[in-house]
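Quarterly update, task 2.4: guanosine-5'-monophosphate-bound model.
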Amino acid sequence: MTDCLFCSISAGDIPADIVLRTPDYVAFHDINPQAPVHILVIPVEHHQSIAALGAANPELAGGLVAVTEQVAREAGLTDYRLVFNTGADAGQSVFHAHGHVLGGRDLNWPPG
Ligand code: 5GP
Ligand code: ZN
């Protein structure tokens, strides 16, 4: 999709701090990190959300979860949070399926 930010990052048309690339997936640092480690993992193939990806291509969706684990491990995380915001009311702002890998601080909620 030409007007999709994450398709543009995947294609190399918009720069990103890429940590992992395979033929099917790309992982890169979030531009506005919410934790010491905040990496986004996307499929190269455009799907508007994790729900749409899971419905259209369950194998690719499953592979995305496997890649998030690899990304977390290579970032030195044993404990991390994997988030898929799905829909604008849930906080999704980029409509290309992506998982947030968050870690490197205490993520227990509520704190304390
Ligand atoms: P969402 O809100 O859709 O779940 O997550 C989108 C994420 O993309 C946000 O955490 C936001 O900081 C990140 N983001 C938005 N624009 C860019 C960008 O141009 N480059 C990178 N690396 N991350 C971005
Ligand atoms: Zn896209």
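Highlight for this quarter: Strands lie at 18-21, 25-29, 37-43, 81-83, 99-103.
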